[in-house]
Every structure is written in structure tokens, then in C-alpha cells.
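Chain X:
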Amino acid sequence: IEKKTSFLKKTNKSCYLTNKFITMDLETRVIDEEMTSYCVSIYDGKTFKSFYLNDYEGVNAEKLMLRESIKYLMKRKYHNYKVYLHNFSKFDAVFLLTVMSDLSDDVNPLIKDGRFIDLKLEFGLSKKYSLYFRDSLLLLPSSLRSLAKNFNVEDKGLFPYKFVNNSTIKLDYDGRVPDYKYFDKVSEEEYISYCKEYHNKKWNLKNETIKYCELDCLVLYQIIEIFSKNIFNLFRINIFKYPTLASLAFAIFRAIFLEENKIPLILGEMYEFIKKSYTGGSVDVYKPTPNKDSKVYRYDVNSLYPYAMKNYPMPTGKPIYFEGDILSKLITKKMDEKPFGIFEVEIIAPDNIKIPLLQTRIKTKNGYRTISPIGNWSGYYFSDELYNAQKHGYKFKVKRGYLFDKSDIFSDYVDFLYNLKKNSSKGSPNYTISKLLLNSLYGRLGMSPIAEQHLILSNEKANELYSSNKVEITNVLDLKNGKELISFFNSISDLEDNNFNIKNISIAISSVVTASARIHMSKFKTDKSLNIYYTDTDSIDID
């Protein structure tokens, strides 16, 4: 049965580059296992503004400081600006969420896997103005220090993070430079050089914190500015439309490299079927080393997933559903003429196999686990991975599945970025950009079509939602201000009305990319001349 499906469409390039963004940084301390913020700095490309806890009084001093920092941004001139904080999605968002929901009844969070992807704050009469708070780490997944080096901007500087974690240290401290033990990842030479700067003057905690916090804002601003210009010059894409690296890579692919009417959009029952074949990389320990002095060599595949995307055929065209053992009717044994798709199969592993090749996910009392079993079982697999396993003694019978055409859809994308990486000096902005984008595309196509929803509601409205039974509540965070952040999935009836949150997905491609990578790794797992201790997604450990 040929399934009706639509196809991924091209997206438009940007006509011009906008520069409407701000950087923000919070300095925090941990006393008695409680993390609090004590300094906030903001930089809009021209002006710095900082807020320090000592300038506020009372038990709510921290909240007042954070409130003033957000109010400073709630201006007409900052309408539609993106505010970037590095590692915002894990830590800083928690500090700011309560304050934002105090200042506005219209705070709309986008959260995925427990991380804040985007936090939209609407303010003014009739919600006329908006600010978007984002985590730059989700766009540039590396430490600020590493990024500063790769983008050739000012160094982050040194700061004794652990010094303020001592409850006896006052925030108005003014004295000698803190001891070396309070500095993290700093050499003794760097510390001695730092101390020389304060040979004839006192070290003031407030001044040094603000200086360091503002420097972080400046460094991040310069990194984002260079990143934005380079992406625009290379692809005519505006990074500020995309909160994550995966969404940016996806936009670049669709704007520049996508051939239309090729990639089928997969939803509903077909998505649920194919999702079972998408099990990711393979990680296994086979045996310990003989003794602690044993020498082990690790070999890593160069850009494994981009290699698989370029060199293995990908599923395209309209999917065809079938039932029964399609291979029993096969006349030819030529590889390029065998059925190509995702199949549900009954499998028997060879008795003598030492390193199993086919993996599956099983439910245990501790959650789902990915294993490579022996014996026999039923599972969902990419056809070419089955044919590869067959060469090593596996037997299988096809029960049903989906057939696809096969095409090369990623070569131009991979070649462009790989050549950019090869022709850029290591550690340069373009080298970093190419490396990031090469590995960020395939996973975006495998996202779930049903996204978790998130709302900030008053306690009263929240109680109404709980009693309605219209949604499946997954998490509740009490913001301690009469409001709650509620995470939920829409009801089944809503989903049947095609209320999907994410439509541009094709999980068959993500499944085939990872399965093709496992096929490549099987060459080493089955090499009898190798004594293998461990393998993971893209590397082997041998003697």
C-alpha cells in the first residue's frame, strides 16, 4: 500500500542580517548547598549595565536584584531582541523565571529534555513588546573559554569562583588576592601573574566580580557576532531565528542543499513503527585489560555520522507498507535490488558469535536499556543492517515493514562543510562552524512529532487544569509566587485532530544514518585479527 505523505520543503534565505541581540551573565555562589546569584551584567553591544547583591537590602535582596535586571531590559528599544546567556537552560533560567512571571503574565517557555530552549517574555500594553531569552550553549556547545579561543576574541580572564562559596566571606570584601585554591583550572604561573596586578592595591570583590561578569558578556557578544556574520556570509541564514544548533543546521540544509519531493514527512502510525528501529549508537565493554600496565589503543572514526550520511543510501520517496516475508519472493540476490526499508523481523543470532551486531531496546525495572542480545527475538531494523548481519550468521524472517526509494541526499551538504573544515585552520571560526554543523543535522529529522507543552499559570488556574483531565501532566514547578510552571502533553483526542507540534520530521532518515554507522563499525567488530576490549558509537579499543 503506497502511503500518502507530504515532503520536506525548501525554506527561504534571509535578505539581510539583523544584530538585535544582547548578552547577559549571572555570577552565582553555593552556600550550605544552596545556589544563589549575587551579580548580573548586561551588554547590548554599546553599553554595560551591572547589578550587585550588596546594593539591595532585606531577605528578598536577590529577587530585587534580578527584578531590576529584567526591568532594565523591558524597554521599547529592545523589542524582539534575543538575550543570550551561556548555560542559561540549566541554571540561570531557574533564577530568572520567578522574577519574569512576577513582572508579566505572559511568559512562554519552550523546554525540551528539561532544558529551556527559548523563554519569551511579553510586556507593555496589549503585550506589544517581546524579549526572547536563550541559551548560547545550545547554539555553540562548548565552554566560553574554548569558544573565545576558537573565535579569536578576548580571553575570559581569571576569577576565584570558590572564594564566594565561603559563608564567612562578605560581598564587600576588600583585601589581598584570594588564595590559589579558590581559582579553578588556573596554572600557578597564571595565578602569580594575576597577583602581580594587585601588588600595590587591594583586591575588591564587588569591582572584580562586575569586571569579570561584564567581560563574560563582552566575550559572548563578540563570539555570537562573529558566528552570526560567518553563517550569514556562508549561507544567507540569520542565526537569531534558530535557538539551537540542530535547528540552525536544519535551516541551512533546507535553504541551500535540499532537493524537494525527496524526503517524506513521517507522522502517525508510520512514525511509531519506524521509531522502534531508531536505537542510536552502540556502546559495549567486552573484557577488561589483562593488567593495569596493559597498553590499549583507541581508534576513532573521522566524522562517522557525516561519513554515513554521504556514503550510504538514504530512504526517500513515498513509503510503501507491506505485510509478509517479502524476501521469500525475491529472485535476485544482488544487493542493490534487495528491498530497502525498515522491517519488523524475527531474528535468530548465530550460536558462536562473540560480539553481537544487532541491538534492540528492552524495558527493565530501571527503564529502557539498549542491548545487543544473542538467542532469538523480534525487533525493528533497517534492511541493510539485516543483510550485513546475515553475512555473519544471523537468520531472520520479515513480518512486515515500509519500503522506500534510496537516494543520495546529503553529499552536497557534507562535502561543503567537510571542505570548509579541511581548508580552514584548526580552531578558526569556520573550522568550528563546519565541525558543529556536520554533526547536528541528522538528529533533527528524528525528533518526536508530539512535543511537551509548558505553561505558567496562577495556582487557581493550575488547579482547574489538574481537575479537567484534558491533559497528561508530566511535571510541576512551584515558582513560590502564586504561580506554577506546568509541563504536559495534550489529550489523545487533541492529537487525533492532528494537533502535532513538530511536522518537519523524517525519522526513517535518522534511523538509517545511525544504522549505517553501525554497519561501518561492524567491519572492526568482526575482524578476527583484532583483540577488542571496548567499542562505542565511533571508536574501538584494542591492544
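Chain Y:
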Amino acid sequence: MATAQGTDRFDVIVVGSGGGAITGAIVAAKHGLKTLIVEKGAMWGGSSSLSGGGMWIPNNPVSVAAGLQDSFEEALTYMETVIGDVGPASSRERKVAYLKQGPEVIRFLQHEGVQFVAAMEYPDYYPDKPGGKIGRCVEYAFFDKRKLGELGKTIRVAAELPMPFHSGEAHHLPKAFTTPGHFFKTMGIMGRAMKRVTGQQLVGLGNAMVAHLMYVARKYGVSLWLNSPCRRILVEDGRAVGIEVLKDGQPVELRAGAILLAAGGFDHNREMRKKYHGIDGWSVGNPDNTGDVIQQCMELGVDMALLDDAWWGAVSIDPAGQPYFILWERSMPHCIVVDQLGQRYTNESASYVDFGHAMLEQDRKTNGKAIPSWLIMESRHRNRYIFGMAMPRFTPKSYFESGYFIKARTLEELAQKCGINAPNLLATVARFNEMVEKGVDEDFGRGRTAYDRYYGDPTYPNPNLGKIEKGPFYAVKLYPGDLGTKGGILTDEHARVLKGGVPIPGLYATGNCTASVMGRTYPGPGATLGPAVVFGYIAANHMVKLLKGGSDAA
């Protein structure tokens, strides 16, 4: 095996290239530590690059400057309330570290020239709970990819979007034809496409996030190796001393003073999904996320937690055979979600992680009758709202030819085509329509909170409720998909990897390869990326103290 020599020696090695990874690399390199990012894939950015790009960071300076009234105490009350006591991954110490360091991360990155935008309309996912707020999500400003030079060509992208936009304004798009306000907001978003005529290559969402961060990282001389998977973590005398990577087809042993693991979860490892989740998995996360680093840590005897959980949400399998994350489509009026028995079982407008948990639980209760479930829509849903990339009143032929959309003149016919219990479906719809008349979902509370209404239609008395009575009717299969897995390596409040409850000197971790501080829930928009970045920042600052003459002690 080759051992890196000379210029290939590094002080800090970061495994992975998402938001948390790059943030950690920036901190280390700014303090004069020679830093390398190794990326398994041919593209960098990880699941962060495929994401909405928002970070849930309470009391952050961008949102506060935009008018948010928030405090550490309110945020901690909220996190303690909605997360609860689910083990050491979301200990009070880790919550406190996250909430105290979160605003500091934003200030640090602002000082480095990173620009942010406050998502002031975006609610916490439980805004009615003590300490809940609207406007805690912060996003990265649009970024001209040309500034990255050749590196801009290898940024991971989900699909080529015609215009950049922020996740905090995305709720206007499906409602573009419902009110003048939503229409003009959408036209403003679409107008950004004209920037490309001038040669600009503006990107938004997760692409903007990782592009901003990588631009800063390169300024500080951070090296990036693509196509370089980590094959083994080197530990000697109880201390992490390096990693073995495969570079240009050859194993290379790299030595370093500290290692930051930020390599994503096991979204696309079917065997691990079967073992820990009981399903194959339908993930929209980075396809390179196969849990390699988690397995390597398991071999070292590292502490693990929350392996049975994920950042759940409903997905459909689109005409191209790819999972598509269903968000606003299930929240709008004139639709419900039922299992194969024709029963509603949850609030269709709930946060995606709650919806995913509900589907999994219903499948257990019904002995396999909720995977897949069915999103049932009537004509007004299709006539008023965008579904995926399908405009209102126009559904591409591929949607029907592929079986993605099932269409029928009557609910009875729709039930027969979908294999749904028809009498139960008719009874469920009748009950639902009665509640729509009252404007209150007495069964599941749909439309009760600001989060529910965020993706609803404001022209309705209850923005999330509309009768299902006018054909034609449509159905789409739903599966328990995810944005990534959220269980793995257990770390402390300094992001140090634990073994037997004791930190392994020199070894840190952040992001979806770790057990999330958010426990089994999702407090608000960006509660995946927020901890990844914040604990990457925390880890790197601890490394700096360690490598600049300090000790492993906190």
C-alpha cells in the first residue's frame, strides 16, 4: 500500500463534501491547518447540494435583522418540547451547543463574505408548541457558478432548474394561478431565468449553499480529491491518526492530526435499510450515500444511535422511475391520502417526517396495507395547482402512459383501478366532505397550524380542506421516502466520536452519518442542514485547539 509523502501530508482530513464538511474545512484551513476534503463520488456537494439549502438556526443574526424576535431560551424550550428525551444524540448538552454556536456560525460565514437570506414566511413545523416561531430558517443567497471556474462543472445537481429560487419562496409556485400575490411572486422568480441570457450562472437552494462554502474553502487553500472513497479509518493506541483512501484506483494511506467524518447516511444501502428500517428505501438523497463510513465505525466499535430512523417523507415514483418528494401536493385542498383499505390515517398537511412516520406506523397496524398509500385528488386539485412539473389543467401524457397518474370518472372506478377497498373509500370521502363543510378536520386536525396553512390555498376558509366530489378523479402511489437517514455515529457536544461513551481522540463527525441532535422529529425547515453545518463548525474549532497545542479535554 502506498503511503502519502511530502506534499500529501495534511493536518486535517474531511471525509465528505456537503455543507457540514466544507464548513469544517474552512475553519481548519483559516487557522493555518493544511486541510484535505476527500469525496467518494465524481461530483462534490453531497446531499446538501441536492437539498433546499435552508438551515434551521434559531436566533440567527440574519433573521433577527429581518425582524424575528427570538431567544436562546425560547429555542431551547421549543427543542426540549418537540424532541423530548430520546437518548444521548439529543442530550441537553448537544441541544445547548447547537443553539449557542448556530448564530456564531452565521456570523463567522458572513465575515468570510457568504451572503444569506432570511426565510421569514417559513414556520417551524410545530409553531403552536411553546417557543415555536415563524422565520428561523436562513438560506444562502444566489451564487454565480462561474466564480468557481472548472470546479463549478463538478458540483452535484439534481436537475437543471430554469431559474434559481429560495426554498422559503417555493410555496408560491404551486399556487401561482390562485391569487394575484402568488402569481406576481412566481413571475418574479421566473424572471430570474433572464439572468442566464447575460451569461450569469446563478444557482440557488442547496447548490448555492455548497457553492458559497466551497468558494471560501478554496480561498484558504483547501484541497479536494474527487473519486476518492474512504476505505478505512486508521486508529492507533486509541487515537485516530488517518484514513485509507482509494485514489486513482490505488489504496493510499493518509496521516493527519484530526479527522472529520461527514460522509452522509446509508440512504442507498439496501441491506442496511432492510436491517434497520425494514424497507428497501426510496430516498432522494445523494445516491453515493451507502453508509461506508458508518460501517467502518461499526467495525471500530463506535457508539451508534437512531439507526432505525430517517428524515422521512412521502415520495412518488415519477414517469422516469425516480423518487419525487411529495410536499405541497398532499397539502392542497381537494385531496386526501388513504391506505389500500380506503382509510385516512393522518393529517395530509403535516410535516414530512411526521407524515412518513404515520405511513410506516399505519403499515404496521394494517399488516402491509399502507405501503404504498394513495394520494386521491379531484378535478379542482389538478385545475388549480402545479403537481411536480405538471402545470394546472395540463398533465403530460407520460404521467398517464407510465401509470404515474391513475385517472377515473368516478371514485368507484378509481378504487377498482388502484385496488383500494371501494366501500371504505366512499365512506372516507363522505366523512371528509362533511368535515370540509364545517371547515374543521375533526379526525386529524388538518389546517390547524401555520405550518399546515403555509402550503395551503389561502382563498379557502380552511386553506387545506376542499371537497372531493367533482370528477375526473386522480390517484398517485405514495411510498415512505426520505431526504436521507438520520442515525449512525454517536457524538458529544464537541462533535467528538464516542466509543463506550468516551471520545476517540482526533475523530469527529457531523451530518447524516451521525445520530441527529433532532432526535426522531424535525423541528423546522433546515433542521437537517443546520446541525450538519453547526457541528462541522464546532468540530473544527475543537480540532484547532487540539492541534495548536491544546488537549483532547473539552
